[in-house]
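Section 5: illustrative case.
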């Protein structure tokens, strides 16, 4: 069982497999809808220009979302949907970060005076894992801690643990 997310590795892998399957189905459905719309367009040249413009915008939006996710920032529901469709692995990391963020928030709410210890424990568990997601998760946890400190105890705001 992972200390940060509270779910077993097998449950996590099963969840990832289901989400990957859903993402593939969604991508196939989106592709079919896109092809039908392109075939129905009256002006092929205008449609092609629109598609190129939309693809460029979609790609830059996607890159911004991916950067945000990799830095451990909290994503909106629409950003998560885009990640789920385009990059299931990044989506899984973002969900993992949100779960870790929620777990830390619950711990800090239970005992505000122990907030820094809760963060330290969560970050210690991450450092023991040694995986690629640890850095983004650590940033997410530090962000959650700073948000908590801003709401409850101004003296904690300067406290931050290494990522």
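Designed sequence:
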């Amino acid at each position: 069982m992972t200390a940060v997310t509270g779910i077993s590795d097998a449950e996590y892998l099963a969840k990832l497999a289901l989400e990957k399957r859903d993402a593939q189905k969604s991508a196939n459905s989106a592709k079919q809808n896109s092809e039908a719309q392109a075939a129905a367009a009256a002006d092929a040249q205008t449609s092609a220009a629109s598609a190129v413009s939309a693809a460029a915008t979609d790609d830059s939006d996607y890159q911004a979302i991916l950067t945000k996710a990799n830095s451990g920032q909290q994503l909106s529901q629409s950003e998560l949907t885009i990640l789920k469709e385009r990059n299931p692995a990044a989506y899984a990391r973002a969900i993992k970060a949100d779960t870790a963020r929620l777990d830390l928030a619950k711990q800090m709410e239970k005992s505000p005076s122990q907030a820094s210890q809760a963060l330290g424990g969560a970050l210690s568990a991450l450092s023991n894992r040694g995986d690629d997601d640890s850095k983004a998760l650590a940033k997410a946890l530090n962000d959650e801690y700073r948000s908590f400190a801003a709401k409850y105890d101004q003296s904690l705001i300067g406290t931050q643990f290494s990522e």
